[in-house]
Amino acid sequence: METKDFRRRPALPFGMAALDSRLADKGLRLDALHEIAAASNDMAEDCAATLFMAGIAARAWGPILWVVRRRDLFAPGLSQVGLDHKRLIYAEARDDAELLAVMEEGLRHRGLGAVIGEVKRADMTASRRLQLAAEGGRTIALLMRRHAREGADPLAAPSAAVTRWRVACAPSTPLPVAGVGRARWQVALVRQKGGESFETQVEACDATGRCALPADVADRKATAGGAARRAA
Length: 232
Description:
There is one protein chain. By secondary structure, the chain is of the alpha/beta class. Helix 3 links the parallel strand 4 and strand 5. The radius of gyration is 18 Å and the shape is globular. Helices cover 29% and strands 24% of the residues. The strands form two sheets. Strands 5-4-6-7-3-8-9-10 form an eight-stranded mixed β-sheet, with helices on both faces. It has a two-stranded antiparallel ribbon with strand order 1-2. This is Protein ImuA. InterPro entries: ImuA, P-loop_NTPase.
């Protein structure tokens, strides 16, 4: 694969000022490890975290390696957030150790847009190996930390990840008629290198993998900003 004329972007932006402006790299560093976890072990929040991660991969540049422990990915759902099944390369691992090893090999290949894995346990050494494998390339590493047991925080363990995210479900966008509006997520950046943590609510990814700031949330922020300027 010829890449000598490719000018690598340092980061993959969300395209939302509410997120990008608060990230140290104005987006997600491409040559880095990023971790995502559901806020609970509830199936709906697990799906929300998976789709948040899939939306990021959908905006990456090329083929996607997705390494799983169980065959529960739903291709039509991934397609709804912009991740076409034709871009996906699936790999199934026996255990977390094998999954992490496959991810590392995928990152070192340098011909993939993103490498995704789902684990219950990954220690600091494992996360550091993924981070080192990603550095210097243009393949973003996305690691979903699943709940090992009820009540445990998947993001409590130390990690070398550049960013760590927690995703929860939020009430959907209200409609003027009876029905269910666009899904919303409560997205928390628990930790980032070189920046502060924050939390915001977004509308779920659309068919291009992009989230949006809900209109009512944007209005509240604009009102608060105007009040702050008047007070100053």
